[in-house]
Write a structure and sequence with these properties.
This protein has helices at 8-20, 25-31, 36-48, 69-77, 80-83, 96-105, 125-133, 162-172, 191-204, and strands at 52-55, 59-62, 89-90, 110-115, 118-124, 148-149, 176-181, 184-190. By secondary structure, the protein is of the alpha+beta class. The protein folds into 2 domains: 8-77, Winged helix-like DNA-binding domain superfamily/Winged helix DNA-binding domain (Arc Repressor Mutant, subunit A); 80-191, CBS-domain (Roll), CATH 3.10.580.10. Helix 6 (96-105) packs across helix 7 (125-133). InterPro entries: CBS_dom, CBS_dom_sf, Diverse_CBS-Domain, HTH_11, Tscrpt_reg_HTH_DeoR_CS, UCP026546_HTH-CBS, WH-like_DNA-bd_sf, WH_DNA-bd_sf.
Length: 205
Amino acid sequence: MTEIKLSARQLEIIEFVKANEPATGDQIAGSLNLTRATIRADLSILTMTGILDARPKVGYFYSGLDLNPTIYEDIRQLTVADIMTTPVFVTKETSIHDAIVTLFLEDTGSLYVVEATELIGIVSRKDLLKGALADTDKKATPIATIMTRMPNILTVTPADSALFAAQQLVIHQIDSLPVVEDKKAIGKVSKTRLVQLFVDTFKNE
C-alpha cells in the first residue's frame, strides 16, 4: 500500500495547533496568511483522519495521533454508495404543516421533494421555520412555495468518494447531500452519517 502523505500546508496546520491549542479556524488561517475558506478542506481532512479534534465554539486540538495510512486508505476508498442512507420523500403539494409534522416524526434534518422519482427540491428545517413564521395558512400552503429548487441544489452521485462528499458538506456548510442518479433521488449523505462512520472506523482501529 502506498503511504498517504500530508501536504506541506496540512503539516503547518498541525504544528500551529500543537503550539496554540485550542486554535480557531481564523487563527490557523491567519498564521498561514490564508482565508478560512482556503483551509476548510485541509481542516476537514485532518479532523476526519483523527489528527485534529474539532470542538464547536472552542477550536481545534491536536489529538496526539499520527496519520494512519491504513485507516486513511480505507476511508479514501469508500464511495457514496457505501455510506448513503434513505431520505424522507414528499411531494411539492405537501403542506407546510404536514411537512413540519413529517420532519419531526421521521427525526430528519431535511425533506426531499420529488415528482415521480425525480428530485425537484429540498426543504430544510430552516425553510420550514421561515414557512411557519410566515403569515399564511400552514395547512393550505404547499412546500413548493418555500423549497430550494433544482438546479440550485448541490448533489453527489453514488460513484463519488465519501471523502469528496464530506468535503462538500464542510465547504458549503450544509447538513446533507442528495445522492442523484439520472435525476432520480436514491439516497442522501448527511453529516450525522459521516461522523458515525469516522467514529466507528477509529473505534474499531
